Amino acid sequence: MGARRVTAVDVARRAGVAVSTVSYILNDAPGQTFTPATKDRVHAAVRELGYVPSAAARALRQGRSHNVLMLLPDMGIGEALAHVVDRLSDAMDQHGYSVVFRRSRAGRSATALVAELAPAAVVALARLTPDEVAGLESAGVPLVQDVGGRDGITDREVLQADIGRAQAQHLLDLGHRRLVYGAPDDERLEPLARNRVAGVLATTRQAGLPDPDVVPVPLDADAAADVVRAWLDASEPPTAVCAYNDLVALAVLAGAARHGVACPADLAVVGVDDVVAARLSVPPLTTVDFHPDELTAELTEVLLDRLLARPAEPRTSWTGVELVRRGST
Amino acid sequence: MGARRVTAVDVARRAGVAVSTVSYILNDAPGQTFTPATKDRVHAAVRELGYVPSAAARALRQGRSHNVLMLLPDMGIGEALAHVVDRLSDAMDQHGYSVVFRRSRAGRSATALVAELAPAAVVALARLTPDEVAGLESAGVPLVQDVGGRDGITDREVLQADIGRAQAQHLLDLGHRRLVYGAPDDERLEPLARNRVAGVLATTRQAGLPDPDVVPVPLDADAAADVVRAWLDASEPPTAVCAYNDLVALAVLAGAARHGVACPADLAVVGVDDVVAARLSVPPLTTVDFHPDELTAELTEVLLDRLLARPAEPRTSWTGVELVRRGST
DNA sequence: CTGAAAGCGCTTACAG
DNA sequence: CTGAAAGCGCTTACAG
Fold this sequence. Notes:
The structure is a homodimer.
Chain A lengths: L7 H8 L3 H8 L9 H14 L5 H8 L4 E6 L6 H16 L3 E6 L6 H8 L3 E4 L5 H10 L3 E3 L10 H18 L5 E5 L6 H17 L6 E4 L4 H13 L6 E4 L2 H13 L9 E5 L3 H5 L5 E4 L2 H16 L14 E3 L5
The structure holds a DNA duplex.
């Protein structure tokens, strides 16, 4: 109830030192040295009292909290993104930081959020406006852009295009010449899809092929069956589909099954993400794994470089996009 | 760079009032009244200056931050849990709260986290020790237990058992008498699985049937095929499986397909979660949807009741566990 | 090597 | 209805 909070003053009193000493020792402040005996007394007092520094007081004093603000795009969180958020949280947690994520939405600019939360850094998986970027800059808050860009991490658009390229190249290598793109049926995904499509087009054009049609595929077996039917009824039916992601690919598979279309014999399908369900479909799904875990590891390192003011080494955890061939191609 | 932060003092100066007036007006403090003209001047100044109150200063002063600490079980975040986290964050965000989540792990007790973050409330989706619960109590921090318990929300164990019951009952209604339980191959999921199994057993026992075997099913088509093979080779092969979740169910489907076992004719399968992929498998998966969205809505309301000191009305968004019958049974 | 003191930006009794 | 002031719990020059 009224159990007063244990403060640094309490620790100091118990250890028989000044509060400043407690603070210096707990943060092992550079340029300050203390006898082992003093340190021990302080640490012992901390333990006995169960002292935990107040994040609020620290943040207020330093003008910077230990929060990392993660700005997410305004779209549903898929399996891959959930893992990124999850792993980054865990990793930063190890270093004493809390990850606070926010979906970017009209009304609360990144600038306002930064003023409110005074984050130690911002990780933007969503696109920021130039004003927002400038605002962060002038506030001196380290910004790591959308798993990408000028940070030694792979640029987002490049990454997405790589994915599309890998899909199309695989299909072309297999001898397919008539491709179609299975786009998401959710317009909020359009920005991402656009870049993936760009990779596909770059590849097919280079091979001298006409641009594949881009058609939305609903995540529903019946609706997907209609889409597949329309493809089959075309004058020159596609023989392979690049799907926006594994879920779309699974929908295509389901739609094809409805019409007895053999996969991959009559229609080959490649997804993206290597979701768990991709290994479990019939046939198992060929997919592009862009190694979100590695990307997250890299993101974490870059973030810590900035946060701990470590020399920014080139980070190269990411091994690139990988085509995982299974039964659907 | 050194652009000094805009504070309440700046706003007060600009509006020609005292800082206390600014604070009172911005928080519309009860029992304080101001002329519309004064309010307007303050709001105008806020807007012109782009003033955003410092979360750290507020938290320090009030001894309580606007963070909601969400404690997650030490397991991978599945599709359902990701949605819960996601939606809760969004909802609380609307009310000015940030959700900070932490995986429960040895070394950092909830008590220490609370001392550090001074959260406005704690949502525990992981089990807390009695000591931790007592600590929260004495610190006066509202605790909402694991989407469950004494809060007008469904108790977690009851919910899990309901899921198992719904699966088993459905299969029994269909005439199946030899069931088997497809357990997760990840021991961190065991606590959850245990309660689901309990629901299944309660149902089969009531029907006078022997307890179904509980066998782990790896999320891999080959390995799952081996499991299915073992079932078929048994002296009295099961005719239906209750899977821990949709992914396990999908693995069973994949395993069955490997051996040409017809589903549902030779082996019926029920999952849990109604994951997107469940609608897209061949055959589409029968599953139990426990409506995590409704549960989250309820969780949010209960949380806000506590946070805003609203009278705790009975919350009844949750419509219970629902069996969604599709092609796999 | 240690200690007293200022100040981060708020909110909230309290006096006018 | 408005204003001056204390204090939340830290960190960090600064003086000893």
